[in-house]
Design a protein that fits this description.
five-stranded antiparallel beta sheet, disordered C terminus
């Protein structure tokens, strides 16, 4: 059975036809995160477009080999998109989210950890010599995939965005930072770089994260990470943001077992603390 649907987009009325037995559910995508949507039984000849347009949204692409839609939406891509797959309709809603999930190693069997709003958030930022705006959808998707594979991280916890002035902060303000194989970026050129980032703790950094940070330090400097990504690494840093309830507190709680002095020039171990 085929239904005639009338859809109003941007003040214009579109008529399309959709099979009432469609098996394509509506889905959500999240800003700065990988989006992957399988289209079982579809082929290279499948026509996939945004309703009312002749192509897909700029952040999204259809991979004919795997019959999947993939991409990494940015903050400017927020909104709802009605897609037609051989006249089958479904919606993708791109949302912002307070992403406080902690990235675990791929071999970890621990339950996923989500930091509470009152917790401080410890985050790793890797600045890459690539312009997120000009990268094609599959290139943005692959940046997250390749970094995750190289550092043995679960890719669903890794994010990608254009670099901001905030990301070009003085390394002295970071808990620990390191250099890459590319020249250091300056604030006026921030928009031409990308930042791959993920959370490594709710203020406290567990010991199993240290192996990942040590590999990041070495591979960023010697160029092996840049070769894996296909783009040079400018630098990296570990930063901490205070939780909502932590803003009025100045008490420092040291955790036993993982303590050392942060070094802007190289990584040994980092402070493990909670504000």
């Amino acid at each position: 059975m085929t239904l005639c649907l009338y859809i109003i987009l941007q003040g214009l009325l579109y008529t399309t036809f959709a099979d009432s037995t469609s098996n394509l559910p509506d889905v959500a995508a999240y800003v700065d995160r990988q989006f992957l949507y399988a289209l079982p039984g579809k082929s290279a000849d499948t026509k996939v477009i945004e309703v009312g347009k002749s192509s897909l949204p700029t952040w999204l692409t259809y991979d004919t080999l795997s019959s999947t839609l993939l991409g990494v939406p940015s903050v400017k891509d927020r909104g709802t998109y009605i897609l037609s797959v051989d006249n089958d309709l479904f919606a993708i809603t791109v949302r912002s989210a307070d992403l406080r999930d902690v990235a675990e190693p791929t071999h970890s069997s621990e339950e996923p950890v989500v930091c509470k709003p009152q917790d401080s958030l410890t985050q790793v930022k890797v600045t890459v010599n690539a312009d997120t705006i000009t990268l094609r959808p599959h290139e943005r998707y692959n940046l997250i995939r390749d970094l995750s594979e190289y550092l043995s991280l679960k890719s669903q916890h890794v994010s990608l965005r254009s670099q901001t002035v905030e990301d070009v902060a003085d390394p002295a303000s970071a808990l620990v930072s390191g250099v890459g194989d590319q020249k250091k970026q300056t604030s006026h050129s921030a928009e031409t770089s990308s930042v791959l980032y993920w959370n490594i703790g709710c203020g406290i950094v567990k010991s199993h994260q240290m192996d990942i940070l040590e590999k990041l330090e070495t591979s960023a400097k010697d160029g092996s990470l840049g070769r894996k990504l296909g783009h040079g690494v400018i630098g990296w840093q570990v930063v901490i943001s205070k939780g909502k309830e932590s803003l009025g507190k100045r008490r420092l709680k040291r955790q036993v077992g993982v303590t050392a002095t942060p070094s802007p020039g190289g990584f040994t171990k980092i402070y493990s603390y909670k504000l």
